[in-house]
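Protocol step 6 of 9: fold each sequence in the batch and record its structure tokens directly after the sequence line. For illustration, a two-sequence batch is reproduced in full.

Sequence one:
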Amino acid sequence: MRRSIFAPIALAGALLLASALARPAAAQMEQQALVDRSTLAVQEMLGAAGGADAAHYNDAVTMLRRARAVMVCPRVFRAGFILGGQGGSCVLLARDGAGSWSSPAFYSLGAGSLGLQIGVQDAMVMMMVLTDKGLSALMDSQFKVGADASIAVATVGAGISGATTAAVGADIVTFAKTRGLYAGIALDGSLISARSDWNRVYYGQSVGARQIVVDMAAHNPGADPLRGALMRFGGAPAATAAPSYQQQQPQGFQQPNYQPPPSYQQGGGVQAEPLR
């Protein structure tokens, strides 16, 4: 009798526990899907070593190796007839001085336009953030592309060569791979907004973009394939050239009173596990 009474209670408890454990994973499905699409976008945009877009690919990889951070928008959709609109979801990742990429912070991208236009366009977009100033601008709750004259943004479409020259002095360089009826994608006037609600769902706590991408205080293993793809194509940050007098010294030469530089230590937060 006692066993028959407690069996349904035990079963109900087990079901409640299973439901509680499954709820966080189910809540992250939309965010994880965006992270997975971003991984595929990185592989598609940077993995086309041959073909007509080889020069574009090489420029993008070169910029990624110099980048302080990168924003990936796996699908920016634009459609219009007279009145047009543009939108998409994005992730932002940054890396520390040792070359380890952070987990992603979530953003939305939206814009409206007015003009004689008809058609649809589907684009993958990567924004290579080359300076700390550019990264700080993107980490604001809202950033309007082209509105801040102190932030230089260069846009390069697929198949356009000379991106490295065109991007000299830019804080952010945008690469786009487009499909559809529009000749190119224009990001000027687009509003990039932080999605704090998505960050909270994905990490199970309230964390801001700076805590995620700079302090590396939050990590989700579901983002490891994306971090690995960026490590694969971007490698370590580009090293600063040594002074000429050091370049002329024989191998093994050390300046008098030489002291080895201290190892880099990311300040604040819990650093994500490096991917090698």
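Sequence two, same batch, same settings:
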Amino acid sequence: MDYFNYQNKLQPAKGRLLASEPYLPDPNFERTLILLTEHNEEGSVGFILNKPSESQIGDVMPDITNLRSPVCIGGPVQQDTLHYIHRVSGVTDSIEVVEGIYWGGNFEQIMLLIETGQIEEWHIKFFLGYSGWSPGQLAEELKVNSWIVSNRLSEELIFETLPEVMWKKSLQNLGGRFSIYSNYPVDPSMN
């Protein structure tokens, strides 16, 4: 068995996760877990789930005073834009990524739900920027083992798991050799 071949048989798709291989050299994606919210012939869009910034949503949106949600770095693209995924059905213009998990939607409606306490911290995740791939780019990155594709998506993993254990937990959820990868040291020379 080739323990350094991170490929699996799953193909990327909307609602799937991308876990970076343990030694991906790009600091933007080191040990990250990305939720793909769009994947088609025009490219792919996703958000890094486990890369919190130093800011909370109130720092970015001062009108939000009753929610202390951290804001994650969604990726290196357009980091001056705010995005969100949530588990609140019925938000106008939101896109269902998988059952019970939605991307975006009417921001005024989201704000009203926050103000009235109908959205709690564990119902929504905010991001500055996003991760994006042009047509064919993600396929090329998969060929060189940059990503492990997973369909082991759960609301608990996205909204309730601590960022510092999310990458590891997602690989352990895949089992087998992927569980072994989750225990690779960050710096093998320190092992």
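Proceed to step 7 once all outputs are recorded. Observation for sequence two: The chain is about 25% helix and 30% strand.
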